[in-house]
Amino acid sequence: MTFAHMLAATLPALQFPSGADVVHLLPELIVGGGFIVTMVLDTLIPPSRKSWLAAWSLLVLLASGAVTVIDWVTVGGQQISVYAESFSYDRFGLFINALILIAAIFVVALSPSYLERQKIHHGEFYSLILAASAGMMFLGSSESLMMVFLSIEVLSLALYLLSGFRRGNTKSQEAGFKYFLMGGFASAILLMGMALVYGETGHTQLPAIAQVVAADLQSVDPLLLTGIVLVFVGLGFKVSAAPFHMWTPDVYEGAPLAVTAFMSVATKVAAFAAILRIFSVALTPLYTHWEVAVSAISILSMLIGNLVALRQTNIKRMLAYSGIAQAGYMLIGVAVSGSAAIAGVLVYLAAYTLSTFGVLAGVMLVAKGDDDSSSYRSLRGLGHAHPYVAAMMALSLLSLAGFPPLLGFWGKFFVFTSAIQNGQIALAIWGVLTSAISIFYYIRVILILYSPQESEQGGTVSWLAPARVGAVVVGLGVAATVVLGVFVPVVYHLALSARDALLVRIAAP
Amino acid sequence: MTTGFSWLTLVLLVPILGAVAILCTPRREAWLIKTFALIAALATGFLVLGLLLNYSQAAATGSPISFKYAENVQWLPQIGASYRLGLDGLSAWFLALNAVVFLLGVVVALVRGVDRPKLFFGLLILTEAATAGVILSTDLLLFYLFWEGMLLPLYFLLSSFGNEKRQRATVKFIGYTVAWYLLMLLAIIYLHTQAGGSFSYDAIAARQTTGQSIITVPGFGWKLLTPDQFAFLAFALAFAIKVPLVPFHTWLPDLYESLPASGLTFFAGIVSKLGIYGFIRYAMTLFPKEMHDFQGLLLALALLSILYGAFMALQEVDIKRIVAYSSISHLGFISLGVFALTVIGLHGAILQVINHGIIIAALFIIMELIEVRTGTRDRSLMSGLEKAMPWMYFLFMITALAALGMPGLNGFAGEFMIMLGAFEASWVLAVIAGIGVVLAGWYMLRLHQGLMHDPLHKGTKEGMTDLRLRERWVLIPLCAAMVALGLFPNIVGQLDQGSVQQYMAASHTQPASAITQPTPLTHEVHA
What we know:
- The complex is a heterodimer.
- By secondary structure, chain A is an all-alpha fold.
- Helices cover about 75% and strands about 0% of the residues of chain A.
- Chain A has one domain.
- In chain A, strands 1-2 form a two-stranded antiparallel sheet.
- Chain A is globular and about 65 Å long.
- Chain B is mostly helical.
- Chain B contains 22 helices and four strands.
- Chain B is globular.
- Classes of the chains: A mainly alpha, B mainly alpha.
- The interface of A and B includes residues 413, 435, 440, 451 and 496 of A.
């Protein structure tokens, strides 16, 4: 039951991939290949021309996005096994790909001017963003525990480096180091859990695990349950669910804004994709065994995230705790585990991606320095100095708070609806009460944005004029939360077909 | 019963288009912004007027309450949510009031002037669309979207305009309301599952509610309520906060104190009335059994509101807060008419919603005009204003008399019918409510006399002027409406009679119990 055994079990997958495999994994491979090419290009491009790399990375991401869209149309409702059941090529994975690509495109489009101002405009930034994106996209398509683990390692290693990207800054160094230590620990737990699951079922492929588990429901081995719990702990760390959230605020605060924005949304999307694939599909037969644990973690995340966010005075830390709480809401969908819940979680992920990014991108657009620009005090009066940026941030915050008709409302709505339909009324009520708390800290930031500037330290805080490209990109994202909120059937329809694709093999074993 | 043209969508669309036009106008073109706002409010007003004139009563067809101009567009078919709008005798009046108070809000803002007109008028007109949506939607999810979505423009409006206290007051209001609205959302989702996966008002009203088991606390065996009772309480709480009924009123005095009159005309005029609307439209007809279960509690809260509001108004010195507390007391009256669950009481409540919308707007405008002239809101620092302001004296007197329920003015007809309805339910209610009427006479007359009679207060500013011509032209139509509605309260009764009967029928578990006798509406009012 060692790592070598598990590798041996996946040996068939280590054969050379066929042409069909390559075609089916094209979106992921484009980004992964782009990462390697970017590393090479970085050595050839002079330091003053690093923006070229941003353009190139955008090109790679857009190409991958285009392929994702084409794949979405061509794949239809089927679920195709790729590379000896290592990955699954289906609309669910493509939905996740699209969200990750949106986050990556936004970050890359905003980064050049931001990195330039922070004097950390190095080419590695782009290659690491591409590497992390590739890992996340692979994770969204992974259908075997091995590939889940490897994808998580790829994305984590890139993010460890990115967190410490402000090399001269101790907070950033601390963030990188802390994330690395805690992440390594979590990976070990995850791997241990996978080993136990493999040992009990004899498989690493999720469909095979599902079959073995479903066949023998009478006597569930405690070791298998231990393995499942450990896997959940490992993934819970990645989505920063309480009580595995301790790293989140420090890392979000120390990491450069661009990295915080990227990892706060994309990591969560990818890790939730894995949670849904493993728990809501493969381990559904054991639902009664893990339901209570997931519910408990969901309840705890909502409580801790929302309560501690009230006390924050730094927008990065506030969003870290808000992200913990939002993970709690999405975990309601996992704990409910109906087919409606999966679609709800997907809508929630889309809303969370656009809205959290909208807030952080707003700060990024006008930030002078990283640490002094993200405290609440320095945001005072932004609404008067840069009404456009402040309005974008305010709308995103309201979407996070769940105001209709913004997209954030619909995420909560679908998740709560699935909870009530499945009779988990207590979870839904808890969710509602805690999200009532959340209104206060989101609105507090809006109030600060629109309050008069205070000038107690002599001079007033000043902001930089937002870069035009970045402003347009953020505007697009925020417009999407409004427009998709009003025309929510579009998103819901996409989420439903992604959901259906995920359940194909369960429906027809 | 779908007419060819989507008139109700047009009612929503006109203000939205107006808001978009305002948004697209450059900030320095203030006159253009004001013109757009006025056009949007006027156009909506004429549209609603045309709909009302065209509106005719027809017999109910199958469903408990039939809607005219009904629209139904599939929107989220997967979960049974549609874009459904409809108009009935109840919503017709609320829609009319909505159009009037927002037009009034625009006019008051034009007369009094407002800084940042683009923001103000844009948000004002947008709020009008949201409140009209609340009134017109006949799909519970759509209703909820408008109900909470309304808070978005309101939030920015309330926090951007008014005195220095507004930020705190706004956060208090939003925090208070949102928490409980979310509980109502859960109740709506619950009803949706009960009605077989549809959010349609008709489907939910027709759902089967038999065989509800009482929820018990696991492990203790404590008996709680049935799920429907929980759902009813969630609805009732959301509406009670909006009205507001004491003890859910604490957001109101602070907010009203901080708002300018242009915002208060529509906020006190329609936004808080939507709570009453919700009680009639949703709590009464969707939960007929629960409404009777909790009738005692609701009546107690209504009476508490009447008395508490009146006593607070008596002990306040701030004139704006006096009016704010009087509003709590009057809304307690309106709630009493609804909760009595009698036909005449409900008629009176609807009539009084219209009346109070007009009276409270006039009162807040007058208070602001007095504050501007004297520079204070302290009642004890003002007296003898009548010499400098004869017009103010006259118009304030009409308004005050209407507010305290003087026969011949509009406040009387509504309060009288509510008292009759309460008496029908129990004489105790009418007696306690009668104390409220006496107190209303006390604080209103004391306010008017204290401000207007006696020699001029020593500290008063020099050179106070009477109402300007344009200020008069805001108040005179309002006072004329008070007289007109006082003399001919039947206008309201004719339009909503059929609907009120239906609502009453739907609110009784054994239909045909309370509605068999014809409504003796006309002669009693003129008695």
